[in-house]
Fold NADH-quinone oxidoreductase subunit H.
Amino acid sequence: MPDLSSFGHDAWWLMLAKAIGIFVFLVLTVLIGILAERKIMARMQYRIGPNRVGWHGALQSLADGVKLALKEGLTPLGVDKVLYLLAPIISVVPAIMAFAVIPMGPEVSVFGHRTPLQLTDLPVGVLYVLALASIGVYGIVLAGWSSGSTYPLLGGLRSTAQVISYEIAMGLSFAAVFLLSRTMSTSEIVGGQVHHWYILLVLPSFIIYAISMVGETNRAPFDLPEAEGELVGGFHTEYSSLKFAMFMLAEYVNMATVSALATTLFLGGWQAPWPISIWDGANSGWWPLLWFVAKMWTFLFVFFWLRTTLPRLRYDQFMSLGWKVLIPFALGWVMVVAVIREASRDSSEWTSSLILAGAGLVVAALLIVAIAKVVGGGRPAPPTAPPTPGAPFDPMAGGFPVPPLPGQVLPDLPDRQLPPAKEAPVV
C-alpha cells in the first residue's frame, strides 16, 4: 500500500488555504492561458493579437470575463430550465475538483507547519481524476439535450462518443505506469521517478495519453462537438453570459488538469529536469513548484500549437484513430510491459529498464506509422460503374441537384415559363 501518512494531519485553516490556492492557481492559469493562446496564434499566423487592453493586451482576458459577466443572460424558449442551468455547473466543478490529488511539490514549511504541496492523495488517486473527467462530460451532454435545438444535441452526442472512445485508451495508458510504479497514488508515482522519468520506459503510453487528452478536452483538431462549420457552435450554441463563460472555464481547467496529470505520470512531476537536478537543492523547498508549472505549461503550449497548425479531422478519421489504433496498441502495450516485468524479475533494474525502453521505441514507431496511415489517408471512394457515354442523366435522382459526371449528358428540359403578369386594375 502507498505511504499516505503525510496527508490528513493539516490544520483546518491550512487545508482551506491550500484549497483556495488551487482555485486561484487554476483561475489565473485560465486567464493567462486564453491570452497566451491568442498571442501565440497571432505570432504563428503573422497577426498582432490582443494589444489594446492593458500593457500589450495583458488585461484582455480579464476584460473579456467582465464583458461576459455584464452581458444579458438569455434563456431560449423550450429549454429544460433545470438541466439548462445545471449543465455548466456540472462541467466546471469536476474539472476543479480533479486538481485536488495533483502533487505540485514536496513538503514545505507554511508558518511553521510541514505540509506537502498537494491538497490530498488517495490510494487510487489517478482513478479519481479519470472518474471526475468522465463526470464532466455529463455537463456537455445535458447542455446539448436541454437546449431543445438540433445542433447542440448533435454536439452533445459527439462529445459522448469521444469520451467513450478516448477514455478507454487513456485508462489503458495509465495501466503501464501502474505496472512500473506498483501504485495508483499520484504522490507515490512521482516518488518512483527519482532515477528516471517513466516517459523513457513507456513511450507508447505517453504518446497514446497525449493524443487521448486532446480528444478528452475537445480541443483542435478533435473539437468536433463544437465544430462551427457543421454545428454552428456545438453544445453551447444556446448559451450566453456567465453560463457560456463557465463552459470556457471548464475547458481550460480541463486542459490544465490533463497537462498536470501528464507531468505527474510521465515527466517526473515536480522533480527538476536534468541537468538542474544535479543541484542538491533543486528538489527541496518551493523550487519544485516552478519545475511543475514549467512542465505543465509546456503541454499547454502544445495545445495552442495544435490549434494553430492542424485542421479539424473528419469524424470517420477521428473514430478510426481511437478504435482501430489507440485502443489496440494500448492494450497490446500493457501486455508487453507485463511480460517484460515478469520475465526480468530476476534481472537487475538497469537491465529491465533497457529492455523496456527498447521495446517502447519499437512499439512507438509502429504506433506513429499506424496513426499517420489513419489520419493521412483519404476516404475511400465508393465503387461506381463508369457512366455510359451519351446516356441521359437525371440530376434530381438523389433528391437534390448534382452536376453531371464526364460522359453524362443532361436531358433536354423545357424552359421554365413565367406566368403572365397580371394587369393592374384601372382606378
About this structure: The chain has a mean pLDDT of 86. The radius of gyration is 27 Å. The beta strands are 107-110, 113-116.
